[in-house]
Amino acid sequence: MVILITGISSGFGMETARLLSQEGHIVYGTVRRDVEPLPGVHYLKVDVRHRDAVQNAVQQMVKREGRIDVLINNAGMGIGGPVEFATEEEIREQMDANFMGLVHFVTAVLPIMRKQGKGKIVALSSIGGVMGLPFQGFYSASKFAIEGYCEALRLEVQQFGIQVVVMRPGDFSTGFTASRKKTVNADAMQVYRSYAESMGKVEHDETGGLKPQVLARKISQIIRKKNPRHGYVVASLEQRLSVFLKRVLPARWFAKILGNYYKL
Ligand SMILES: NC(=O)c1ccc[n+]([C@@H]2O[C@H](COP(=O)([O-])OP(=O)(O)OC[C@H]3O[C@@H](n4cnc5c(N)ncnc54)[C@H](OP(=O)(O)O)[C@@H]3O)[C@@H](O)[C@H]2O)c1
Description:
Layout: E1 2-5, H1 11-22, E2 26-31, E3 42-45, H2 51-65, E4 70-73, E5 79-80, H3 88-116, E6 119-124, H4 137-157, E7 162-169, H5 176-179, E8 181-182, H6 186-191, H7 195-207, H8 212-224, E9 231-234, H9 237-248, H10 251-261
Parallel strand pairs: 1-2, 1-4, 2-3, 4-6, 5-8, 6-7, 7-9
Helix pairs in contact: 1-8, 2-3, 3-4
This protein binds NADP nicotinamide-adenine-dinucleotide phosphate (NAP).
């Protein structure tokens, strides 16, 4: 298969590119900085926030390979802090990288997949895309946006044989934690007294989380499936349970559980 993965400089993207290339697929991956290349993987330089750069990268790839079977939209980042204190610049970066990045890639690949009469789009959401995580409000908003967009997209493109799969990982140990842009504003710390402790808990859970290879293996299985599910939660038992509880419990009860967990 010819596969395009966004954000392969580290974490899920890197491990997925490594695995899929080892499995014999033709793998293209995007980066925005120079990295040690993975053997057999083709690199494209793109900041996913820039529509024209994304269009160019997809055109280059399709010119060389003549098709694209799978898009894995993985590139993303997180900002952390009380929503009240996030700056407009931070909020825009969050939405542009996570949500508009996906939109740019999907817009670029759809005409090609439509002509082929088939294709798979795998979008990285998060369990933070099904529940609003405190002190990661804009991160959650970007992932909720991905969820809503993919739900609508799936209905529109199924007539062309295009499948849309949403991945919802729990806590994983990747470069994500170190790259998070956190609010360090002293007022924010003072007003939201549980912020520092709560963020410490988040970081502790992430660094002690699952290995990105687990998600890479899951993605490899999914792209080979004829009829994949619409979404997959890949997480610890506790986090899978939290997704289930979010679905079945009254909202007030679930908020209480989540608030207790984050010491709010
Ligand atoms: N780790 C977790 O616990 C977790 C849980 C749920 C969902 N996720 C999601 O999984 C995806 C991958 O994250 P990860 O955990 O593998 O983190 P990571 O190791 O930090 O990798 C993120 C990748 O996205 C790239 N990226 C970020 N902003 C970009 C931009 N504007 N343009 C181009 N590339 C950009 C990064 O490039 P640079 O190296 O240049 O920054 C990097 O290659 C993200 O969408 C994240 O939200 C992660």
